Amino acid sequence: MRVTDARAKGAQSVWKLGGAGSVGSQVLTGLPVLWRLRAAFAGQVAVWPFEAAQAAPVVVTEVFPSMLRAEIAALSPPRHGKAGRHDWPVRDAVQVRMLALALARLAQEGALGGLFDAADPTAPLAEEGWILGAGAEADLRAAARAVGAAALPPQDTDAPATAPHRLTPPRLRNDCFAMPQGVDWVPVEDALARLRAALVPITDTEDLPTAAAGLRVLATDISARRSNPPQANAAVDGYGFAHAALDGSGPYELPLLQARAAAGQPLKGAVPMGSAVRILTGAILPKGVDSVVLEEDCATDGARVAFDGPVRRGANSRRAGEDVEAGGPALPRGRRLTPADLALLSALGVGRVRVLRPLRVGVLSTGDELLSDPGAQAAPHQIFDANRPMLLEVARRWGHAPVDLGHAPDHAAEIAARLDRGAAEADVILTSGGASAGDEDHVSRLLRERAQLSSWRIALKPGRPLALALWPGDGGQRVPVIGLPGNPVAALVCTLIFGRPALSLLSGAGWLEPQGFQVPAAFSKRKKPGRREFLRARLGADGTAEVFASEGSGRISGLSWAEGLVELPDGAATIAPGDMVRYLPYTSFGLG
Ligand code: AMP
Ligand code: MG
């Protein structure tokens, strides 16, 4: 117990971390709040009694509302409302109101400072802290008595006690991307980190012949079954001999064996010391040969070969296993196999590989206005579904198995039915449309109600909104849903930035980051802080980044015109032609 606890009867120790009245855990949860207060009110927050309270506009201090238990008890019995409903639903609410109103009263009377002065100066304040009001109980309780029934929550009567809360519309702005008031924006990096931490890869595997395993993800580490090269061999066309037979620094003249060593046609027998043999690229070095001299550096009459020195021992030859040794590591699990990987595995004698099955990516479009078949006759209010063919193709190019979930009207039950199908047939679902806060946005509403919607306002342009949720499947599985914006431009940008690493992680190939590079801008642009921005861009003939003339997020032609994106940082930026900007070609997102 601290000195102040002895003063405040019934107070729990701030060191108590568990059980009823675990004040200590409240202290811990208060620390981040304090940190935020300090950040928001820099230099204006004092934590009393560790810091002087008198001059600070914001004081954080320990309180103990139960000091007012007698005054609170005096308000009982609690009144009952019309339907017999208790009008005093939360005891702590009354306590807190009473204490707050009592402190406000003392402040009005200019008597608040007395509470700070009441701390026992002989107590080790700097170590133990102090409860505000301990030592000045009489003043605090008098103020509480004066507050009286005003501490009760507003009554549930026919006539509201106070005027109804007025709705404040958001201020209208020209810039429709301006951040709405009172909304917490998730920075891109935080959203990525959250995604990365939340997702778990699939684990089902299958065996495939190496030649059929391109774009698949290795389920195991692969080691070499054979060395590459398996035997020492010639790296050029020329003449082979034993280096030990050369003396002096040349020129040399060696008798030529009437035989030839070629790739696939090894020389039977050995080359005598001091002789040379005709040898072609890829031929195994015959016994008695450790060095090769390049054909162009030689003169020969068919019986002898002459060349100049010096010659390095082992010249123009490849050691057995110099590339990869038998049994050594070839490729790690989690590797998505490239054409070069197929070459490597084949060279190392790996004919079959265990790979993960492809990730099944469901793609669903939503919107009453959508028409699936671009060849169909469209009514004026209809538009052709552009996102679905785009996203299905993206999934295919990334090596996943696309699952077409069709398109659903803005109708919760129909969207839910498609998501149910997606949960059964896919490992992850990409939806587009219906993900902002508008009335028609059934996807986000549905996900909020049924699928633990977890994050959806990302500080990204174009991009917001983005919904991340887990749709419950029949088998108890929870299938990740990435709810993309409806605008095709935003849908693609979000897919590249969030979808690509997320799908890659789910597929077992690990998290991915696009590789961008700095190029001079060919454009001017001024951006405000608070949001990362991606512009549709491509490189001009001089290597500078041009951006698409319009940033309108419905301009699909700009997506097609572009060959990549320019990424502008979260903070404010002013870009003039020639300034370096980060360019991310579509190829760095695995798209040509
Ligand atoms: P939403 O996110 O549903 O509010 O849609 C935003 C905008 O994107 C609207 O103009 C929609 O008509 C459009 N949109 C939504 N889905 C698609 C789609 N699959 N293809 C083309 N445009 C779409
Ligand atoms: Mg819509």
Summarize the structure.
By secondary structure, the chain is α/β, with parallel strands linked by helices. The longest helix has 20 residues, at 488-507. The structure holds adenosine monophosphate and magnesium ion.
How would you portray this structure in words?
The chain has a 6-stranded mixed β-sheet, with no helix packed on it. By secondary structure, it is an alpha/beta fold. A hairpin with a 5-residue loop joins β25 (532-539) and β26 (545-547). The chain has 14 helices and 29 strands. The structure holds adenosine monophosphate and magnesium ion (MG). Magnesium ion (MG) binds at residues 366-367, 410, 433-434, 440, 486.
| Beta-strand fraction estimate | 15-25%
Distance between termini?
Answer: 69 Å
Shape: elongated
Radius of gyration: 38 Å
Biggest β-sheet: count, sense, barrel? 6 strands, mixed
Q: What is the SS-derived class?
A: alpha/beta
Helix amount, in percent? 10-25%
Unreliable sequence segments: 156-164, 168-183
Order the strands across the largest sheet as they lie in space.
Answer: 9-6-8-7-11-10
What bound compounds does this protein have? adenosine monophosphate, magnesium ion
Count every helix, treating DSSP H or I runs of 4 or more residues as helices.
Answer: 14
Number of strands: 29
Average pLDDT metric: 87
